[in-house]
Design brief:
Distance between the termini: 30 Å
CATH class: Mainly Alpha
CATH topology: Amino acid/polyamine transporter I
Largest sheet: none
CATH architecture: Up-down Bundle
Shape: globular
Bound molecules: tryptophan
Helix content: over 70%
Number of helices: 20
Structural class: mainly alpha
Radius of gyration: 22 Å
Order of helices and strands: HHHHHHHHHHHHHHHHHHHH
Oligomer: single chain
Strand content: under 5%
Number of strands: 0
Number of domains: 1
Length: 481
């Protein structure tokens, strides 16, 4: 059964995809990764992968959604059937649903921290506090399962309510208010950063390219980040693509999404580092950058509590516009497959993901060490879940690229992309070979035992594998090719 739902406006897909893409990845993860990996060099690799790998896969994933007009799982069932390929490709849908469920479980816990800091900032309880107090405050938050669960619960309920209201009344109408508001807030914070902080230091930190500063690890991290930040490889974009108007140009839309997403990450980086350097703090403080270093910077600046509060509202809004796109693909599947009502489907997804999120909550305190997860996998439950998603998302992206690159016919792709033969050929080359090889690199990073010199070798194997996949798993290569 097809959902037949379509966004109200031609531009809504762009709005929704930007909402999904812009999130904790841009505001929290990107700045600290850039900070840890030498700034400019990291950004160079990141931008390269966005264009060479991110955009082609973004186009591919949207295409699979729009061509099937179904939720990712049902959509892949439909496409493997109509294209007479192996049913193994349905794993794209299942992997995606599993990733959505896993990502939402911890994304909601971390977004909950922003809820805490919004509150702390607006009540002025951090004003004038010193580094020790702020650091201790963050540690105390993480040490409290009760508080973390409270924020996690509030955040996930808010996300569920939006999706429960449906794609028009819930998702579209909230994004139409949320996204413009977020851009305004981002610019306000940037202006504040320029006025009170050290903008010149931030700009030279982010845009000075010294490739020597970038380790192999940094390269891979930049590539992984370019996936994460575009929400690729797990069906969110496919689900939104299924509602996309047939008229909108896929190619142009994908470029727009990538450009806006990258611009937001850059502006957020400039704003955050202006404040951090202005306060004489360290850029390389890792995940604590947003929750420890930044509050400290705000604490020292005029009107810092107010602007800090507004900043954390921005973080919350960006996180919620992403979390709704994690719920949608699974909820849409439950509606299509089991005829549930939308509220029932959303409740099922959210309750399950919420419960799993409790594992992330206790990973910071009660189960911080010595659990079964540590014994079996050498890491906490949260780190294990994160590792799983770091494997599933690139793997999903790899399969999406291969399927779109090898199974869809020239005619189908041209109908979706509406572009000239040159762009078509470029795209197809990128999804058939470049993207799979790049994903293999990212992928290997999560296997620490792999020696450095093996990585190019395995990359080459994947390129060969891509050929083989094209020949073997696609029963009837179309004559159109
Ligand atoms: N792109 C989101 C961000 O930058 C994170 C994310 C990754 C995501 N995969 C996703 C969001 C899938 C929604 C759906 O914060």
């Amino acid at each position: 059964m097809s959902t037949h739902n379509v966004w109200t406006h031609k531009g809504t897909f762009l709005l929704a995809a930007v909402g999904s893409a812009v999130g904790l990845g841009n505001l929290w993860r990107f700045p600290y990764l850039a900070g840890e990996n030498g700034g400019g060099a990291f950004i160079l690799v990141y931008a390269l992968t966005i264009f060479a790998v991110g955009i082609p896969i973004l186009i591919a994933e949207t295409m699979l959604g729009r061509a099937s007009r179904r939720s990712p799982i049902m959509g892949m069932q439909h496409l493997t059937h109509t294209h007479k390929t192996s049913r193994a490709w349905e794993s794209i849908g299942w992997l995606g649903a599993a990733s959505a469920f896993l990502i939402l479980s911890f994304y909601s816990v971390i977004a909950g921290w922003a809820l805490h800091y919004t509150w702390q900032m607006l009540t002025g309880s951090l004003a004038g506090a010193d580094a020790e107090t702020i650091g201790a405050g963050f540690d105390a938050l993480l040490a409290s399962p009760g508080l973390l669960t409270l924020y996690h619960t509030l955040f996930i309920i808010a996300s569920g309510l939006i999706v429960g209201l449906g794609i028009h009344r819930g998702i579209e109408s909230s994004l139409r208010i949320l996204m413009p508001a977020l851009f305004v807030i981002l610019l306000v914070v940037l202006a504040y950063g320029i006025a009170t902080g050290d903008f010149a230091a931030a700009a030279s930190f982010l845009f000075t390219f010294d490739i020597a500063e970038l380790s192999l690890e940094g390269w891979l991290e930049a590539m992984g980040q370019s996936f994460f930040t575009l929400s690729l490889g797990m069906g969110a974009i496919m689900a939104y693509g299924a509602y996309m108007s047939g008229e909108a140009s896929l190619t142009r839309t994908a470029f727009a999404i990538a450009v806006v997403d990258t611009a937001v990450a850059m502006v957020a980086g400039l704003a955050i580092f202006s404040l951090v350097f202005g306060a004489g703090l360290d850029a390389g403080s890792g995940p604590g950058l947003m929750f420890v270093t930044l509050p400290l910077a705000f604490a020292e600046m005029p009107f810092g509590a107010l602007v800090g509060g507004v900043f954390f509202i921005l973080v919350l809004g960006a996180a919620i516009s992403s979390s709704i796109s994690l719920i949608e693909p699974v909820a849409a599947f439950l509606v299509e497959r089991f005829d549930l009502t939308r509220p029932q489907a959303v409740t099922a997804m959210v309750v399950a993901s919420w419960a799993l999120g409790l594992l992330t909550v206790v990973s910071f305190n009660l189960w911080a060490e010595g659990t079964l997860f540590h014994a079996l996998f050498g890491r906490s439950a949260f780190e294990f879940i994160e590792l799983l998603t770091n494997i599933f998302m690139p793997l999903g992206g790899l399969l999406i690229a291969l399927f779109a690159g090898w199974a869809l016919t020239h005619g189908e792709v041209m109908k979706e992309m509406r572009t000239n033969e040159g762009w078509f050929a470029t795209w197809r080359f990128l999804v058939r070979f470049v993207a799979p090889a790049a994903v293999a690199f990212v992928f290997l990073r999560s296997i620490p035992q792999v020696e450095g010199y093996l990585i190019p070798a395995i990359g080459a194997l994947v390129i060969v594998g891509a050929f083989a996949a094209g020949r073997t798993f696609l029963a009837e290569p179309s004559q159109e090719r």
